Fold this sequence. Notes:
The protein has helices spanning 11-36, 43-50, 56-61, 64-78, 87-93, 104-107, 116-140, 146-166, 170-174, 177-191, 198-202. It is mostly helical and 218 residues long.
Amino acid sequence: MTGGPSSTPSPTRRRRDAERSRRLLLEAAVALFADRGFERTTTREIGERAGVDAALIARYFGSKTKLYIAAMEARSATDGVADALDPVRLDELLGGTGRKAPGPVLRTAVLSQDDPALQQAAREQLYRRLVTPLADRLAREGVPDPELRAEVVGAALAGIALGRQAGTLRALDSVPQEQLVELVHTLLTQGLGLHPSAGEAATAVPKGTAEPRNATHG
């Protein structure tokens, strides 16, 4: 008498399940790290959000630290390269219409990490995604000390985003996103001695229904 079909998953199925589990863990990590930062996010919470055993973090990423780095790199891969003075990019950095929390890379501009590996990885992503694109533009337009000025802009944007998320500053908390982006853009371009490009002048921040206050921005 022959037995029934084997219940052992095929190698192809196991590989697909592993890829799915890894993707779900990474997506959950991107969201949670952006909302809470590295220290306040636990591997158990990541696993629960992903619907995956948290023990698999060690298998697929090696450690929570390496997962954090992978989350930053994943976010970087989905971001464009526009500099911070592009209105759409500026809207994203300031949390978007959903009042989203600033992501881990933007937080690095004002908050250091205890782990040297984390700090170095976040610093590299900060320069790649924010400082360098803006510094390159400032250099092209003949602005002195372009890297220093780009770093100051990054720190300022991080502070604005964190302050808006905290809700402790009354006017900053209540101002509509479109108005905030317009104000910050004007202050930055005037402070840097720049004139907005034709594209920036014509680009309006997309209007839409605000998302929940506690949404995340990676």
